[in-house]
Amino acid sequence: MFEVVIFTEEKMNDLVEFQVRRMRKFTDRTIYIVPREDAYVSLVYNPISIKKEMYPLKSGGSLCSIAKNSNSKYFYFLYADSIVLLNPLFLKEMENVAVVTKPYLDLDITVLRQERIMRIKHNPILNDYVLTGHYFFTRDFILKHFPDYGHIEEILKEIVPRCGLKAYRYQGKWLRITSPEELYLLKSIRE
Fold it and tell me: What are the chain's domains?
């Protein structure tokens, strides 16, 4: 099995609980919550460990600290506000993988010819892939490549050319929860 690390930069207890409930379907190992502020999660979801750093290590540094103090071979890292509905056990087979997707614009694009609208594209999907904030790493990979401080994305920019990180192309809808309205929408999602 694997351990889960959920990083949250804001007080998002509902989102954290949503992610814990989802992850509990796939692992019975410890779920670490790394909050910027105090976080509350129901004790129903044990084993839970809330890891509040005296000096913030950022996402990558926190993951490295957890890996150093754990005996788990695998870690699934995610940001609490990033929702991808996939089975992380599938990623375990790939090892050391970042979940990427082609994002869509939450806007309508208009194609103009002079002053006339020729076509309207509703919520177009972009061509480039972006990181979703979901990663599956082995402990050895983390200990070899991650420093004690820094955000995962900053660290990956430095190490990607030499580390052999794989990409999983997620085809589903990726949600970034940034407002109370989006959180309300999330609560209506049925898996």
Answer: 3-101+128-187 (3.90.550.10)
Token pair for residue 19? 């992610």
Q: What is the pLDDT along the chain (191 residues), one digit of tens a residue?
A: 899 999 987 667 778 888 888 999 999 999 988 876 655 555 555 667 767 665 677 888 899 999 999 999 999 999 999 999 999 999 999 999 999 999 877 778 888 999 999 988 887 777 899 999 999 999 999 999 999 988 999 999 999 989 989 999 999 888 888 777 777 776 666 44
Structure tokens at 68: 């150093």
Closest CA to 20 of 33, 9, 8: 33
39 by Cβ neighbours in 10 Å (0-12 / 13-18 / 19+) ranks as: buried
Cβ-contact 79, 59 below 8 angstroms: yes
